[in-house]
Amino acid sequence: MRISVIMPAYNEQDNIRTTVQSCFQVLDEIPGDHEVVVTDDGSRDRTGEILAEMKQARPALAVETNDPNRGYGAALARAIRRSAGDIVVSIDSDGQFDISELKNLLDRFTANIDILTGYRISKRDTRVKVIADRIMNQMIRLMFGVRFRDTNCAFKLYRGEVIRRMNLEASGFQIPTEIVLKGHAMGLNIGETPVQHFNRSGGSSTLTPVRTAVRMVAFLVYLRLKISLYRRKILRSL
Question: How far apart are CA 39 and CA 64, in angstroms?
């Protein structure tokens, strides 16, 4: 089984080398021909230079470039399209997840699961963002009638043929939630598993809580309507 680890990167010069190296250290211990796919989403720092340098030593590193910046969701979707793995693993480039957990996640990624989504045991972020995240998850459970703990966790495993044919629309940080909710509405088998979450080791988040919250709520309303129309067979696809 070929594994593709994918990630978006925007102004992550302080973290990208360590994150990509960690991915390869784990993949090198798993039999098979694997790859890491990074979308440099219009970074204005040295992220692109570092990735170009690393690619010289690692042919299995694929680098896509968005210029100008198009947003987290668009960058992730591009990496998904570029991936070739039977299993696709999404992770953030800021080092807040431990890719060494992949081995345990692969054991839980059984034949009947299409998507395995992580949920952060303890989200390491500002108090405002932690509270906002809890409110958002409760809102999602009420709006969509689901029981997922943490739909917007970036650490996920997918069947390659499933995720590559999914119509992904979110350009921003709503995309992990979009994938889970659309997958659920389509009848895909979705599992959950706990994952660790850590503080950033460098750099800073580009998220602004108020703007992110407003955009998330607007997207959830849109997605709720679209899923409703799909279930009523007014729309043929999501």
Answer: 5
Q: From residue 162, how far is each of 71, 134, 168, 217 by CA, in Å? A: 23, 28, 12, 26
Q: How far apart are CA 234 and CA 216, in angstroms?
A: 24
Q: Estimate to the nearest angstrom the gap between the alpha carbon of 96 and the chain centroid.
A: 12
pLDDT, tens digit, 9 for 90 and up, residues 41-66: 999 999 999 999 999 999 999 999 99
Q: What residues does 8 pair with on adjacent strands?
A: 39
- Name the percent of the chain lying above pLDDT 70: 95
Q: Cα(119)–Cα(190) distance, rounded to whole angstroms? A: 12
Between vectors from CA 110 to CA 106 and to CA 114, what angle results, nearest 5°?
A: 95
Q: Prior bond to 68 cis, omega within 30?
A: yes
Beta strands 87-90 and 115-120 are unpaired
Structure tokens at 165: 């044919």
- Say if pTM beats, i.e. exceeds, 0.85: yes
